[in-house]
Design a protein that fits this description.
Number of helices: 19
Bound molecules: flavin-adenine dinucleotide
Largest sheet: 10 strands, mixed
Number of strands: 18
Structural class: alpha+beta
Distance between the termini: 45 Å
């Protein structure tokens, strides 16, 4: 039996409603169809729905399963783009990070970053000070977050693991840490709350035209197996690494094309890599790598190498592993890290706009919009950080195209001050007080103080819904031998965030496959049994989802 609170979630964004949503979309003509449920597509769906457009989004894997769950997980102005003299990118993304933070303090956290410099290195006190000053200015950094310059002693005090030989000092400045997949989900969930329809495991396999004008798409349900024809006045191709595939489908892949480069991150337990302080450091080959502490782990990355394999399946390989271990052992020499110390990893693909003759790390991260003769609008490149501005530009273009059809212009974008789902916590200033208050509510709902706080932090203003679910989840939790908090999170993921497989839950909904591997190993069978009950899987379905999760767990540690 479902409680009335659960009934309320079903219909909003439940995995049980996927097929019904697709059937209902097939019966209408939407204003805007977005292909791709990464951060770019999610941002466009939110911008469009708040400007009054009937909006639908289809994603062929899980939401954020492409690049948007595989980044360095920073909302940042891209300090390194100063080196490439990309002042506009630095200014826009730098300013946007304050907006992203204010609208969703539950998924974004300020993090002081140390930028050490060494005798004979690329950076020295002068260049670092100049770069960081320019960064503070261009990105309009808040006064209390302006950079500081540290001498060698102060630098080592902040991070004693750093190589001390040749250390001259460090810059100290603020980046913002995020959970990229949860950011994507919260942006998309807000769009759904405001009336958009978004369905995962729904792949566009063909396009439909009225004469020469694009008018719809064929969508294949990768879980239910059905095929649907969706009609739309405008179609946006926000498929990241797959942008050229959709352009090819539209026979409009001309001019600029994509170049995919792979970036890998490795995760270590804090016991083995006890980093206190986030560090952004030079590698011996002249690149820059981040080392970031998070949730009892330390992760480091990234690599940047050309990629020609299957975009749906990038993974860590021997070269990536040895490159990152060498970089870590060079900067933190006392650790002596080996492949056996790697607890998890992820690999992502940057959908960059091809610039002939450039090294992967030197290619611009600027986004570009392509409009095809059929009306297909494609967007590629960009950063997580700039997603809102990218979305605004795309929907502005939709507005101009509507005007060309003698329809009224759309109202201006409203997302600058719009909280994403879970972000109604009184802004960044109100967040800590909100967490304290909700932690109390979680304890009253029967959770331990740590679990209650973890849920309050992760889900922000949606935490009360999880606590309600916890109250009604005792039998469910007991039946499957799950802790109450995990049972509530699982039910929320399935009923309110469309999690359809164990990998959806362990990777995109909770990030645990990267940051709590022992927890995944401990609870994966119970979670799979619980999902089988919630989603009414056949025995075959459960077996294939379990196999997929086991494969992902193995790939995270084995090159
Ligand atoms: C290693 C690495 C580190 C990075 N670090 C940062 C960082 O710290 N900060 C930052 O701001 N940016 C960072 N970025 C950049 C950022 O992650 C990307 O710009 C962003 O995630 C791209 O999002 P997207 O939505 O365009 O693409 P994706 O997230 O890949 O989404 C595209 C989606 O389209 C779907 N799709 C494809 N074809 C179809 C189809 N036919 N039908 C339906 N759906 C389809 C895919 O399944 C996919 O989910 C990093 C990127 C990488 C690779």
């Amino acid at each position: 039996m479902r409680t009335s609170a659960e009934q309320e979630y079903i219909g909003a964004w439940s995995a049980l409603e996927r097929e019904r949503m697709l059937q209902s979309l097939a019966g209408e003509t939407v204003d805007l169809l977005v292909i791709g449920g990464g951060i770019t597509g999610a941002g466009i769906a939110l911008d469009a729905v708040t400007r009054g457009l009937r909006t639908a989004l289809v994603e062929m894997q899980d939401f954020a399963a492409g690049t948007s769950s595989r980044s360095t997980k920073l909302i940042h102005g891209g300090l390194r783009y100063l080196k490439q003299l990309e002042f506009k990118v630095v200014a826009e993304t730098g300013r946007e990070r304050a907006v992203v933070y204010e609208n969703g303090p539950h998924v974004t956290t300020p993090e002081w970053m140390l930028l050490p410099f060494y005798s004979g290195g690329q950076l020295g006190p002068f260049t670092s000070r100049l770069g960081l000053t320019l960064y503070d200015y261009l990105a309009r950094v808040k006064k209390d977050e302006w950079h500081k310059m540290l001498n060698a002693r102060e630098t080592l005090e902040r991070e004693p693991l750093l190589r001390s030989e040749g250390l001259r000092g460090g810059g100290y400045y603020v980046e913002y840490r995020t959970d990229d997949a949860r950011l994507t989900l919260e942006v998309l969930k807000r769009a759904v709350e405001l009336g958009a329809t978004a369905v995962n495991y729904a792949a566009v396999t063909g396009l439909r035209y009225d004469g020469t004008r694009l008018s719809g798409a064929v969508v294949q349900d990768r879980i239910g197996g059905g095929e649907y024809e969706l009609r739309a006045r405008h179609i946006i191709n926000a498929t990241g690494p797959w942008v050229d595939d959709i352009r090819e489908m539209d026979r409009s892949k001309e001019g600029k094309t994509l170049r995919l480069t792979k970036g890998v991150h490795l995760v270590f337990d804090q016991e083995r890599f006890p980093l206190r302080q986030a560090v952004y450091f030079d590698t011996p080959d002249g690149r820059m790598v981040f080392a970031i502490p998070r949730d009892g782990k330390t992760y480091i990355g990234t690599t940047d190498t050309d990629y020609a394999g299957d975009p749906g399946h990038p993974r860590m390989e021997e070269d990536d592993l040895s490159y990152l271990l060498d970089a870590a052992n060079y900067m933190f020499p006392s650790l002596g890290l080996t492949p056996r110390d790697v607890e998890s990893s992820w690999a992502g693909l940057r959908p960059l706009i091809r610039q002939e003759g450039k090294n992967p790390s030197d290619i611009s991260r600027k986004d570009e919009i392509f409009l095809s003769p059929s009306g297909l609008i494609s967007i590629a490149g960009g950063k997580l950080t700039g997603y809102r501005k990218m979305a605004e530009r795309v929907v502005d273009l939709v507005s101009r195209r509507s005007q060309a059809d003698d329809l009224p212009a759309l109202p201006a974008s409203r997302t600058r001050t719009l909280a994403i789902s879970g972000g109604d916590v009184g802004g960044s200033a109100g967040y800590e007080a909100y967490v304290r208050q909700q932690t109390e509510a979680g304890i009253v709902a029967g959770l331990g103080p740590d679990e209650a706080e973890r849920i309050a932090r992760r889900y922000g203003s949606n935490a009360p819904r999880l606590f309600e679910l916890a109250v009604g989840s005792r039998d469910f939790a007991d039946r499957h031998g799950l802790p109450l908090a995990l049972a509530a999170e699982l039910r929320y993921a399935v009923l309110a965030e469309m999690a359809a497989t164990p990998a959806d839950f362990w990777i995109r909904r909770t990030g645990r496959l990267f940051f709590d591997r022992p927890g995944v190993l401990r609870w994966k069978d119970a979670v799979s049994a619980a999902m089988a009950e919630l989603l009414r899987w056949s025995g075959g379905q459960r077996e294939s989802y379990d196999r997929e999760l086991d494969r992902l767990l193995a790939e995270a540690v084995e090159p």
